[in-house]
Amino acid sequence: MPAHEAAGPTPAPHGAARTDAAFRAVYGAAPTGVWAAPGRVNLIGEHTDYNDGFVLPFALTDTTLAAAAPRTDGALRLHSGDVPGGVVEVPADALAPGRDLGWAAYPAGVVWAMRDAGLPVGGVDLHLDSTVPTGAGLSSSAALEVATALALDGLYGLGLDRRELARLAQRAENAFVGVPCGIMDQTAATSCTTGHALLLDTRDHTLRQVPFDLTGHGLRLLVIDTRVRHALADGAYAERRAGCERAARHLGVSALRDIAIGQLPGALADLAALPDVRPLVRHIVTENHRVQQVIARLDAGEPRAVGPLLTAGHASLRDDFAISCAELDLAVDTALAAGALGARMTGGGFGGSAVALVEDAAAQQVTDAVHTAFTAAGHAAPRVFTARPGPGAHRAA
Ligand code: GLA
């Protein structure tokens, strides 16, 4: 099978039946159900989500599955099929932000966020399996959080809507895990739909499902996972966020979203005293504008015309936001040189994945060129696969 035809990053058997069976093996009883939440790829709109801006992600068909059953003794038992180390057990009423629970902090954080919001959530047995690669800029954390949140919603009959689920999952990550992420990834996991990209206005949380049928146009979006693993918690993400907030305060707006593209020169002039934040502002303002331009081109039935906007977005992230790295730049430059219509890094940055918009007929040559360039540069082999927009979180069994 050609590399770009691989169905997703992990070819291992995966599915609700397997996760159900794994739960039984770990806990010796049947789960109440199995819930699924996808990873995502962001087409465009990077680092705009904590600036009240626009994002345009779509769900991957790679998912995290959560098999779960309630417990009456208030204990939380967490097990992952992907991380060695056995069951992590902690009483739900002993959960507190900052506790070092490793991977288990994500599901535990969701329980904590729900209880902290006054929701009637008690103990739970949870087994998780995931095909979303971790640290690849494809939102494995949000998939984990949202699968857990949906499972708890089902087990405890909470009746939460998708927006509330996303907010609770984000709160788990912000306040319990300690990563100051925006709302994009959790919303993508809860609210994306098959065949669509999701336009999210992060200011008022309005959503629009944007038909995203590359296949019908003879196109595809390749994901190039550089295998450089990033850690958003390492401070650089928080620094960018703080810089954007400082700039907004200086400009007297509640968020950089309020600076329209035509106001950019004036805003940059007003920031003469804060030279370090000017490039951040330039990225956010132009990126919000690029999201609107991408939407216009998709609405006009011209997906090929999206390519240059992706490439311009990468230059902005590399030069102004300064969050790319050698491997991401190599992936983008090589894809473009091999015939991609556009390419950019995707996600938080400092590693992870790039995306490349390619003609079907060029997919193999782009894939081969990227592999060759990585080998020549002495980088680990990247993983290249075609991403097609899959469903948002749902009950799987
Ligand atoms: C990470 C965060 C998101 C978003 C992106 C960058 O994925 O979790 O909230 O800020 O980075 O667009």
UniProtKB/TrEMBL annotation:
Positions annotated to bind Mg(2+): 141, 173
Role summary: Catalyzes the transfer of the gamma-phosphate of ATP to D-galactose to form alpha-D-galactose-1-phosphate (Gal-1-P).
Annotated ranges, domain GHMP kinase C-terminal: 298-374
Superkingdom of this protein's organism: Bacteria
Taxonomic lineage: Bacteria, Bacillati, Actinomycetota, Actinomycetes, Kitasatosporales
Gene: galK
Enzyme class name: transferase
EC id: 2.7.1.6
Principal subcellular localization: cytoplasm
Pfam families to which the protein is assigned, alphabetical: GalKase_gal_bdg, GHMP_kinases_C, GHMP_kinases_N
Provenance organism: Streptomyces catenulae
Membrane-spanning segments: none
Catalytic residues (UniProt): 185 (proton acceptor)
Protein name in the entry: Galactokinase
Domain Galactokinase N-terminal: from-to ranges: 22-70
Gene Ontology terms, MF aspect: galactokinase activity
